[in-house]
Amino acid sequence: MSHTVHPYSFRLGILKDWKSRWSQNKFYRIFLKSDVLLREWLAKRLRGMYIADIEIERGQNELNLILKTSRPGLLIGRGGEGIEKLRKEISMVAGKLKLNLPKNFKISVQEIKSPETHAKIVAQMVAEDLEKRMTFRRILNQTLEKVMANKEVKGVKVALSGRLGGAEMARYEWLKKGQVPLTTLRADIDFAKERAHLPYGDIGIKVWIYKGEVFEAPKPTN
């Protein structure tokens, strides 16, 4: 029997790196819970800012929160006002949820120059179009054309599930263009899930983007 495997965890340690980078055996459970709750809150708070990834690095009494976005100006704000406001909100949430965060933590913002090559941003674009009441078939076709317009993208697949078009019965629709080899370990596949909130219910969105195969760098010869 075949099993559904998450494309990110399937390649973890081979092509993908950990999104939480720290080493602590004594407080492992506390740190893990804090990272999960912080990511969930940030995903809701920063919705619409096209956040592709949230990475957390911990050291001894320090924390670095890395936000990768295609809209850095919107996130940083004028003169860094947005970052300072976000820092205060995170401190307040950390107190309410009892998160293990140091008082002085760093927030780094990294700009993404090709947003159509990141599955999380593409999924957010699809969610925005669905919430604007655009037809889902038109959204699927337009999204595939935008993503495939990038040279580094070899294939893309977008799947929608729910009451598409306000239908009485939920269904599953998907569209694929190019190659998406999910069972090849060296295939660089970016995967993301998102939800579009509509009056008649949520619509689930899944995006797979294939960027070619990654091989080990050749070893230097003496």
UniProtKB/TrEMBL annotation:
SUBUNIT field: Part of the 30S ribosomal subunit. Forms a tight complex with proteins S10 and S14.
Protein name: Small ribosomal subunit protein uS3
Any GO BP: translation
Listed SUPFAM superfamilies: Prokaryotic type KH domain (KH-domain type II) (SSF54814), Ribosomal protein S3 C-terminal domain (SSF54821)
Pfam families: KH_2 (PF07650), Ribosomal_S3_C (PF00189)
SMART domains, A to Z: KH
Gene: rpsC
Entry-linked InterPro entries: KH_dom (IPR004087), KH_dom-like_a/b (IPR015946), KH_dom_type_2 (IPR004044), KH_sf_prok-type (IPR009019), Ribosomal_S3_C_sf (IPR036419), Ribosomal_uS3 (IPR057258), Ribosomal_uS3_bac-typ (IPR005704), Ribosomal_uS3_C (IPR001351)
CDD domains: KH-II_30S_S3
Similarity comment: Belongs to the universal ribosomal protein uS3 family.
One GO cellular component term: cytosolic small ribosomal subunit
Keyword annotations of the record: Ribonucleoprotein, Ribosomal protein, RNA-binding, rRNA-binding
Functional summary from the UniProt entry: Binds the lower part of the 30S subunit head. Binds mRNA in the 70S ribosome, positioning it for translation.
Keyword RNA-binding: yes
Highest taxon above the source species: Bacteria
Record has Disulfide bond as a keyword: no
PANTHER family membership: 30S/40S RIBOSOMAL PROTEIN S3, SMALL RIBOSOMAL SUBUNIT PROTEIN US3C
GO molecular function: mRNA binding; rRNA binding; structural constituent of ribosome
Domain KH type-2: 38-113
